[in-house]
Specification:
The protein has 8 helices and 10 strands. By secondary structure, it is of the alpha/beta class.
Length: 239
C-alpha cells in the first residue's frame, strides 16, 4: 500500500542545511498498522508528510498502491489524497467556518459524492467517535479532544486505504484514546494500511510493527510482540 524508497528530505543549504530524513526505506502493507517512534526532531512527522504527498522529497520515491506520486500532477495528487489517504494532523487542521459534520463531509463532496450521502457518511463517522451531539458545532465551540476526534473521523470517512496519524491521541484522555486506537486498529484489520507516529509505548502496542527513527534514519524496527525491551529503553534506541 505504501513504499518509501531511499527517501531523503533536506531543508536549507550550506551551513544552514538540515537533513530531516536520510535514505528512508519502509514498506507498509494492507492490513498492517505501523507505529513510528523516536526522539523529538528525529524526522517522524516529516516521514508522514512525505508519505501523504503534503511535501516533496529531496530524493527518493513515495509509492502509494504502486504509483510514484512524484509523477502525478497537482490535481491528481489532490484527488489521491481525498480518495485514498486519511491524514490526522497534530494541530487538527479543521476549517473554522464549517461545523463538525461539514468538516468531515467536505472531502467527500469535493470528490463528487452527493451532499446527502456525504453528510450521512460524516454523521456515521461522528457516531463512531461518540460525537453525534456536536455535529453542528464549529471548531471554536469544541474542546481540544473533540476537535481531535472530529479530525480523526474526517481521516477515516469513505474508502481511505492509507491512514497516516501524527500523535492521534495527543489531546485525548486515556479511555477515549484507547477507543480511537481500537477504531484505527479495526480499520487496518479491514484492509487499510496505517502509519501512526506516537511517543507512547502503550499506544504503539496496538500496532503490528514498531519503527524507530533517530536523526532522520530508521535505526531499528521490530514486531510489537518482540518490542518490549526496545520500548523500555534497554537498547538505548527508544526515547
Amino acid at each position: 500500500m505504501l513504499e518509501l524508497r531511499a527517501l531523503t528530505r533536506t531543508h536549507g543549504s550550506g551551513i544552514a542545511e538540515v537533513h530531516a530524513l536520510r535514505g528512508i526505506h519502509l514498506t507498509v502493507c494492507a492490513g498492517e498498522l505501523v507505529a513510528v517512534m523516536g526522539p523529538s526532531g528525529s524526522g517522524k512527522s516529516t516521514l508522514l508528510t512525505l508519505a501523504g504527498g503534503l511535501d516533496t522529497a529531496t530524493s527518493g520515491q513515495v509509492l502509494i498502491e504502486g504509483r510514484d506520486i512524484a509523477g502525478l500532477g497537482p490535481k491528481a495528487t489532490a484527488a489521491l489524497r481525498r480518495r485514498r489517504i486519511g491524514y490526522v494532523f497534530q494541530d487538527y487542521n479543521l476549517i473554522p467556518a464549517l461545523t463538525a459534520v461539514e468538516n468531515i463531509s467536505l472531502p467527500r463532496e469535493l470528490d463528487g459524492v452527493s451532499v446527502r450521502k456525504a453528510r450521512k457518511e460524516a454523521l456515521a463517522a461522528l457516531a463512531e467517535m461518540r460525537l453525534e451531539k456536536i455535529a453542528e458545532r464549529f471548531p471554536d465551540e469544541m474542546s481540544g479532544g473533540q476537535q481531535q476526534r472530529v479530525a480523526i473521523a474526517r481521516a477515516l470517512v469513505g474508502d481511505r486505504r492509507l491512514v497516516l496519524a501524527d500523535e492521534p491521541t495527543g489531546a485525548l484522555d486515556s479511555e477515549t484514546g484507547e477507543a480511537v486506537l481500537a477504531l484505527l486498529r479495526t480499520r487496518c484489520d479491514q484492509g487499510a494500511a496505517g502509519v501512526m507516529v506516537t511517543h507512547e509505548p502503550r499506544h504503539a502496542a496496538w500496532a503490528d510493527r514498531v519503527v524507530f527513527v533517530r536523526d532522520g534514519s530508521i535505526v531499528d524496527q521490530t514486531l510489537t510482540t518482540q518490542a518490549d525491551s526496545l520500548l523500555s529503553g534497554e537498547t538505548g534506541i527508544a526515547q
